[in-house]
Every structure is written in structure tokens, then in C-alpha cells.
Amino acid sequence: MTRKIAILATNFGPYHFARLHGFKERVKSLSWQVTGIELSRTERTYSWRTNTSEVDHEFRTIIHGKTWEDVSLLTLTKSLFNCFSGCEIDVLVIPGYHTPIFLFAMIWARVQKKPVILMLASKENDRKRHPWIEYCKSLIIKNYQAALVGGSPQKRYLEKLGMPSDRIFIGYDVVDNESFAKSKIQHLENPIKNPFFFTINRFIEKKNLLWLLSVYSEYRNQLGEKAWDLVLCGDGDLRIEILTRIAELNLEEFVHTPGFLQRNDQLPFFAHAGCFIHASTQEQWGLVINEGMASSLPVLVSNRCGCVEDLVIEGKNGFTFDPENKAQLIRLMIDVSIDTYNLKEMGNNARIHIEKFSPTFFAENLLYAIEEAYK
């Protein structure tokens, strides 16, 4: 039976296109049709630039020339519903219920008696939860027939909100691992002359970068000339404050801030970094950690990140740390720098482990979710 699947997003970037391609390939033998629908080609949060001419499936943008955040909810809703009317949709796949427009999309699907699949990255300890808000969420969750979530803590949270366990599948948070394979990127020129730790973040409070700079300063003071450099890739509201802190700590020679880079421009850093760090105090998943592991890098990851339970095997492919415990991270950084661990082996373990979390894994489990929704 031919089915027409529409997958929504606010804005399609490299992650989304990789997943869509994986799903299209998985259902090709079933003659299913896959349509990607995004609200706008650009958005405020992420400044991705992707070449849509290479997209090999039907793909629609409903708002042109503006970010979706700059359009009124009424206009956005009308445009989305007009798009739905112009598509034949059997199943609607929606990334969360965090914005009104996605709630309206769910309501449209329910009115049209179409199965609707929820994709979710949230976990219970992302923030303080209020009982009455959680109750309202539980009422919303009843309208979805199945879900695709990031990993184990995300599944537990959705179960707590009332979705049956057998209707929840893991595999939402994946990247195109092949693009980061060491064999494909190791030839790229090394942008940093010294060994370095690498991190990619939006420059916002929860990414904990000012704290990381303080940790890095103490790490350098303790290790001296053997200390590695640090690359902070990204941009955001805290950029001026971060640059000021780097200057105050006299770290301009050792901390590199290349700004926000598109994926291809990030690859030389992934190719030549010695270790990937992610220090967030709050993180639903942390897809950059997938990328670091796909690049055969050992990882040091905050234990607040939603991916740690599923991705980080302590001492085998990396380590977790408390993002408020400076001494703990300093010790890990020193041990990494002085070859206490076999970094090549840990990086290989990281690459092997992340192979499961691929666009194919996403596709397979989205297919299971759709089949479950039809029961």
C-alpha cells in the first residue's frame, strides 16, 4: 500500500536532510512517498546554509524571504494549512509540541483523521517541571499515535507523560556519520598548529562556555607548556562577553574562536582535534557529540546532556563530568593531554559506537513508529 509521509521542521539543515534521505531510501521498496515541509529556509536560532538543489525528494518551504519567527502565527498557520491542502498526506510527522504552529499541525491531522507521529528530544530533567504543565502535556500526548525519540531518558519521559512504551521508538537524534568519517576528512589542512580540544556551541548561557574558559585557564596553569589549545566554534549573544573573558584570562594565544561555521568549514577541526568537549548545563541531546564521535574523537561530555546514557561509555569512548565541578574536568583534560589514555583506541571505540545512530537507524525506527500508528 502506497503511503504519503510528510515530515515537518522549522528549518531543514544538514541533520534533517540526512534523515529524510535515509527514510526515503528505506521506504523506496515500499513505494512510499516522502515530503519534507519546513516553515522557512532560514531561522534565527541556526544559520545553516544548505544546497537544496541536491535534495532527492519532494521538499517544500512555506515562508519565503523571511524567518518563520518573523511571521505572524495567523499567517504561518494559513500558509502551512494551504501547503497541507496542496499535498496528499497519509501520515504527518511533527518535531515536538513546543511551538503553537506544531500544535495546530497536530490538530489538523486529528481533524483529517490522519495518523500523527511525534519526534521528541526532551527529557524530564531539562528544567524544573510543574505538575499542571506536565498534566497539560499528557493531554496533548494522547493525540499522537506513536513517537520517535532521541534515546533512553527521552523515552522514559514520554512514558511518564502517558505514551505506551511499545509506541515509542529510539533514533531521532542522528547525523550523517559518513560525512565526518576520518578517512574522508583527515587530508584536510590542520587549522591549528598545536594539539587542541574542540567544542561547537551557540554562545548562550546554558552552553556553559564562560565556565569552560575558567576551567581551561586553570588547566593551562597546572599543565604549563604541555597544555593543548582550545577551539570554541560558534556564535551568539554571549560572543562579546566570551571574547572579553578570553582577554581577561590572557588566553588569546591559546583559545581560538573561528565563529559560526557551516559544516564543511567545521570538518578540518573535527579532522585534527585531539578530543571533543561539551560542557552544557542543560542539553536535550547534543548532536555535535554525535559528530565528534563520528570523527573518531574521544569525548568529554557534561552529564546533563541527553545523549550521555546512550552514547558515552565511561572510560571506553570518553568520560562524563559534572558541569559545575571544575576539578573533575581539569583532571580529565590533563589526563587526555599527557596520554594517560589511549586516545586513538577511544576514538575508534567512539566511531564504532556511533555507527548505530545513523540516518538508517532513524529511518528504520520511524518506519516502526508509522506501522505502530496504523494498528
Explain what the structure shows.
The chain is of the alpha/beta class and 375 residues long. It is 40% helix and 17% strand. It is built from 14 helices and 13 strands. Strand 9, helix 8 and strand 10 form a beta-alpha-beta unit. Helix 2 (73-86) runs parallel beside helix 3 (100-111), helix 7 (209-223) packs across helix 12 (326-337) and helix 10 (287-294) packs across helix 13. The longest helix is centred in the middle third of the chain and has 15 residues, at 209-223. It starts with a strand and ends with a helix. The mean pLDDT is 94.
| Sheet having the most strands | 7 strands, parallel
**Count of helical segments?**
14
Number of strands: 13
Q: Structural class, judged by helices and strands?
A: alpha/beta
Question: Which value, in Å, is the CA radius of gyration?
Answer: 21 Å
* Unreliable parts: none
Mean pLDDT comes to 94
Helix and strand string, N-terminal first?
EHEEHEHEHEHEHEHEHEHEHEHEHHH
Give the fraction of residues assigned to helices.
40-55%
Biggest sheet, strands in spatial order? 3-2-1-4-5-6-7
Global outline: globular
The rounded distance between the terminal residues' Cα atoms is: 15 Å
Percent strand:
15-25%
